[in-house]
């Protein structure tokens, strides 16, 4: 099942099960092969956004854990939660998944330079920093590429079976 199809199914599933009033609208659902991330915008309110987010986290923990267990059984992915509140995004217990890569000497030197400069503690941290940097500076391009991949999947699905 393609990630965009899982997103639609998970969003529909959540729409039928999330308690009324949790979020100010439908939550944003993001999916990859290991994780489902559910981020909802907290309704407008008074007070410090960080405190409101922490209060939501504590008050909804038991229900979120129950929903996450059901989601995990059904879609075989870990579930993480988060909120948008007052312009801030707070993510709860998101995954950090190891990824194998092969790098040449020049690429490893870049990572080692980041370590030597105190930007990162390890090659893993340095590589994650590089990925975040590209995502930040090339965000529009990445989003366009993701949209193009969705279009390619749709065209493939309309074609003949292999």
What does this structure look like?
The protein is globular, with a radius of gyration of 19 Å. The longest helix is centred in the middle third of the chain and has 27 residues, at 49-75. It has helices spanning 3-17, 49-75, 105-116, 123-137, 139-158, and strands spanning 28-31, 35-41, 78-85, 88-92. The protein has 162 residues and is an alpha+beta fold. The model has no long low-confidence stretch (mean pLDDT 91). It has a 4-stranded mixed beta sheet. The protein is 55% helix and 15% strand. The protein starts with a helix and ends with a helix. The chain has 2 domains: 1-97, GMP Synthetase, Chain A, domain 3, CATH 3.30.300; 99-162, no CATH class. The chain contains 5 helices and 4 strands. Strand 2 (35-41), helix 2 and strand 3 (78-85) form a beta-alpha-beta unit.
